[in-house]
Design brief:
Glutathione S-transferase Yfyf (Class Pi), Chain A, domain 2, 4 strands, 49% helix, Glutaredoxin, 224 residues, alpha+beta, four-stranded mixed β-sheet, 9 helices
Amino acid sequence: MGLRLVIGNKNYSSWSFRPWLAMKVAAIAFEETLISLEAPDFKSRVTALGGAGRVPTLIDGDTCVWESLAILEYLAEKFPAAALWPAPSAARAHARAVASEMHAGFAALRRQLPMNIRRPVIPRTLDADAAGDVKRIEAIWSECRSRFGQDGPFLYGAFTATDAMFAPVVWRFHTYAVELGAASHAYTRALMTLPAWHEWREAARLESWVLPHDEVDWPDVKRE
């Protein structure tokens, strides 16, 4: 039995996007199961898999992993050739710290700019807390690139789990036309040109579900 990744709506589910993107870029084969976050039986169906009843959930035989960063760690151990963490110990420690900061932080940015791929690209004014989050994220990216990213376009040169953790932020910056410095813009373009990125985007655009709590300026801004 192969791997199965259970995800939520591609238009909205930033947590689901992370392991999905990592597995696609690393060419790790898996079966995808999508359950809409608004489905009446969402909680019961996901809870039945094991864990906390949330997406993403990775199923590998009798093993159930139900949290995005934990899934990435599990995949890194199971598929070492995928190099989901940088090989040098200093870079690997840095990457894990940065990924954990992304996982636990930036609440203001998440709240003000929910992931919404179908939304037209129109700026949204940020409050001071969200603007501070943007500043910190750009500082992280700059440090990663200057210290460890000389051998490729991603944070640590080659694509790693840390890039997967920041991928939903890139969507947010794009969707809400957040102004970025030249180096940050180049990094976002590197992610957004990945074939897997386009695959997720096109699937998200075909979805018909509308989740009002993720439509922060609906109906003033019409979706595509």
